[in-house]
Write a structure and sequence with these properties.
The protein is mainly beta. It folds into 2 domains: 16-200, Galactose-binding lectin (Jelly Rolls); 204-286, Immunoglobulin-like (Sandwich), CATH 2.60.40. The chain is built from 4 helices and 19 strands. The chain has helices at residues 2-17, 44-47, 92-95, 160-164, and strands spanning 26-27, 50-52, 64-70, 80-84, 99-107, 111-119, 124-127, 131-133, 139-145, 151-155, 167-174, 187-198, 213-216, 223-228, 235-241, 246-252, 256-260, 267-274, 279-286. The strands form 4 sheets. Strands 1, 2, 3, 5, 9 and 12 form a 6-stranded antiparallel beta sheet that branches. A hairpin with a 4-residue loop joins strand 6 (111-119) and strand 7. The protein is globular, with a radius of gyration of 20 Å.
Length: 287
């Protein structure tokens, strides 16, 4: 029994030490768990984030993470949840991860979302500028920058780059000002999905055009549907992975078309649609 317990402990320690963020990793919550996202203290077991089925941006069949902050004081009074020594730890700079992209749905009270990190050296940083989200109960896609210049030091004596090179804790929080501990108490509900370790190289590109392009479902498993509001003639369709390798090339000749993506690897792809007048790039997540 002692040998078994020792082996189990060593396995846990080994896994914790080897947790490492990687480019294009996605927490999509389809496995029915919280993917290691939690709140602090004794409240995690009863008041922490939960996995909710059929509530994600794609509707039925799409799970998401939901957390309810209670306001007032005490356990779960603040809008802050975190991942510690798990998939969101390690060297973000070497991994090429310079932003976090996620789908967000805010209810009850408006939020000012920021990302905060603590390095193994004890230095703490927080987004200088927040993303303000109204409590309108609809899904939106946001990007949290991880550029060292976009952070404020809120604890310790190091700098932002040293934290990003060796992250131990990553927090998503709502606060009027950059902080680690003085998070605003607020009664609010947040749902998040498709938390993506991304790079600014995959930002959407838009040209001025009267043609609106939508892709669905996103994330998707079997088909990538592309819909144009209008078109004049053929349009080029190219799909790239985030390393720049083209995985698909074709033509769009009608307002609605689809691609079979069943055999594509899970990850993030850039869907580029163009002609002589417009170039638009959309981000697609293959589950």
């Amino acid at each position: 029994m002692k040998k078994t317990l020792l082996l189990f402990t060593l396995c846990l320690l080994f896994n914790g030490l080897n947790a490492q963020v990687s480019l294009n990793q996605v927490d999509d919550f389809q496995g029915g768990t919280t993917e290691n996202w939690r709140i602090g203290g004794a409240g995690n077991a009863t008041n922490g984030p939960i996995n909710v089925a059929d509530a994600g941006p794609s509707g039925v069949g799409d799970n998401c993470l939901q957390y309810t902050s209670l306001g007032g004081g005490g356990v779960a009074s603040k809008m802050v949840f975190y991942s510690q020594n798990e998939q969101w730890s390690g060297d973000f700079i070497t991994a090429g991860v310079n932003e976090i992209n996620l789908d967000v749905n805010v209810q009850t009270s408006a939020l000012n979302l920021r990302v905060a990190m603590q390095g193994t050296n004890g230095t703490r940083i927080c987004s200088t500028n927040a993303i303000s989200l109204p409590a309108n109960g609809t899904w939106s896609n946001i990007t949290l920058s991880l550029d060292p210049a976009d952070f404020t030091i809120v604890g310790g004596g190091g700098d932002a780059a040293s934290v990003l090179a060796d992250v131990s804790i990553l927090r998503i929080l709502s606060s009027a000002t950059p902080t680690w501990t003085s998070v605003d108490a607020v009664a609010a509900i947040i749902q998040v999905d498709n938390i993506l370790a991304s790079t600014s190289l995959s930002n959407d590109e838009f040209s001025i055009s009267n043609t609106e392009i939508t892709i669905s479902p996103n994330p998707g498993r079997n088909k990538l549907n592309i819909k144009l509001s209008n078109t004049d003639g053929e349009m080029n369709l190219e799909v790239y992975d985030v390393l720049g390798k083209r995985v698909y090339k074709g033509l769009i000749t009608q307002l609605e078309s689809s691609i079979n993506v069943t055999n594509w690897k899970s990850g993030v792809y850039l869907v580029r649609i163009s002609n002589n007048e417009i170039i638009q790039t959309k981000r697609f997540i293959k589950q």
